[in-house]
Amino acid sequence: MPLTPTAETHRELVDQAWVMLAEQLEQFFPDTQLDEAGGSVTHAGGPHEPLRRQVTPEPGGGAIRIDWLGRAARLVHRENVSMLASEMRLAEALTSAVDRRFCVALEPRHGVDDTAAFSLEDDIVAQYLGVVEPARLVDALATLRAAALSTYENRQLSTGALLLGTPGDPADPGREPDARMPRYDRRLSTIKGFHRLCDGLHTLFVVDLAGRLLWPADIERWAHEVQGDRPLPSPCAEPYVAHARATLTGGHACLVLMPSHEIKIFADGQFACAFSTARWRILDVPTKAAIWREAVGHDALAERLFQAALDLSEERHGALFVVLRDPASADLLLDPADRLEPRDAAPESQARLGALPRQSRRFLHGLVRGQRLLDLDIHVLESLAGIDGAVVVDTEGRLLSFGAILRVPPGTPRSRGPSEGARTAIAHAVSHHGAALKVSEDGLITLYIDGVKRWEL
Fold it and tell me: Which of 48, 223, 347, 443 pairs with 367 at a CA distance of 20 to 30 A?
């Protein structure tokens, strides 16, 4: 039988618990800092007392207070921006998961659940999403990670799973599963070629509530039969619209492993979480898209630019979109050679068929001169954004420039952050003149407003 810890051992375990909590907060909240706070409202929790915790937003929403095991701390954004509701929910899930890991050490009478044997980070994600049978999700994530270590004909694998939130497959209710089918877990990775049966993009393995492997499914057909043509709550990268739609109702979740080893999770009709660059990111696309729309002040324009950013992010192509509050700011930020002049201002010598323009950039401008951004097909917009430089528009959607090398006006406040790339520095600087949406080549999308990093996804 486990021994009841002494008071001294209890204090040491509490120290370890807070170290683990701080490490996880740093992983999931990289733009925040954890400060000590006094006046804990929870009991110190002696070796024979029940564990208690409380996670609450502070008045004004600028910080999250965590009271746990007799100690208290404040989680605060370094940019002094308000905490999102999803961040509050994540802090609660994170604290709960860490608490359960130390529950047995501090209180031996408590039992161990199925998730304790898996990655703590995966357990936190499962708690945050609130999926049916969370142990099944962490098991599936372990399966995808095992697949990521494998290759097929010297190629990295891509695969995925659809975790059902309902008894039986709603797309095929009359089909009886084979009782001999195994659980969807990492042991399946030992079967050569198994993960190649579903590529994650078009096809997924269907997994039931017990974690048992059922059969492969075409995700677009499955989503259409189960969810119909219901609209999504927020934009989604074009290749994964069906994955998001499949999870609109029913508590279903889609997991996708990319050849780059990135893992995507779709839940509640949206791209919910992503694992890349050795950490999980909780995305909350609906809230962040709403902040972007408010900053732009033109819903259709904001949605078109946001969709382009998502698609470019998926392609790992860098870009920068700037929506100027005052079109006159273009005189400060743009070189005259980068301005899209009105159609009737183009020199006739350059308009003649077959004439070679002196300035190739202005010649390219003629391809879209006089058009508004909403007049452009989304794929044309993404092609323009793919040219080195920025796409600049005003709040009415007038296209002022593309491929522009932006100038930083004298006296513009500089970023206080660590060393950063040129695109990040420019996005921070020009955001004093309007909303700046930056897409980095590692797939991250960041919004800057008034020199402040508002969010990242």
Answer: 443
